[in-house]
Amino acid sequence: MGDHVHVRLSQGLSVSEAGELIEHSRCRCGATWTKMFDADGGKPEEPSR
Predict the structure, then answer these.
(1) pLDDT reported for residue 24
(2) Can you tell me the distance from the alpha carbon of 13 to that of 23, in angstroms, rounded to the nearest whole number?
(3) To 5 degrees, how large is the angle CA 30–CA 32–CA 35?
(4) How far apart are CA 17 and CA 1, in angstroms?
């Protein structure tokens, strides 16, 4: 068999008490991730074309 490649499936978004955006993801194998984005420190992203 080949190597396993994690596929991140979105499990939703939430906002922390500090105002950070939190992205929750998981893989079908059971692995989970939490990624935090600081909403205070930056300019808005440009729309993609």
Answers:
(1) 96
(2) 5
(3) 165
(4) 44
Nearest 5 degrees, angle CA 20-CA 12-CA 45?
Answer: 50
| Closest CA relative to residue 22, chosen from 8, 33, 31, 30 | 33
Amino acid at site 49: R
Q: What is the pLDDT of residue 47?
A: 75
**For the segment 9-41, what is each residue's pLDDT rounded down to a tens digit?**
999 999 988 888 999 999 999 999 999 988 766
* Alpha-carbon dihedral sign for residues 44, 49, 35, 26: positive
Rounded alpha-carbon distances, angstroms, from residue 26 to 7, 22, 33, 37, 39: 8, 13, 6, 17, 23
